[in-house]
Amino acid sequence: MATLETIPEEIFLSIFEWLNHSYKTDYLRYLTVSRRWQRAVERFFFQRFNLKNTELSIFASLFQGMGAHRKAFVKDISLMIELPSYDGDDCQQHKDLNNQIFSTAMLDLFQILETFNEDEAVKRNSEGASD
Predict the structure, then answer these.
(1) Are 122 and 75 in a shared domain?
(2) Its domain of life (predicted)?
């Protein structure tokens, strides 16, 4: 009799995808079941990110070292830039600060994404997906 550990990968991933769409299952609790389950959970968990500029260093740390394989799963990133509140004084200084924060956040994000291009596993995965 087939178990979730022995069924083909395509069927296994289809089950996870169905659970996600049907029940919005909290995948994180399944991370420790086995390596296979961990890979399946990560495939769905790391697809979409809604980030704040203050979270970029945490985001980058998810893909370092043993987590480098996760880069191949990322499909969509939304970045919200948090700016300081405007107190009504010195509009130009406030505008300059906002521009600096925005530019720094975008540069940081692009530097993180640049490491995705350097990763051979990500290149192989993206080339295979376009075939």
Answers:
(1) yes
(2) Eukaryota
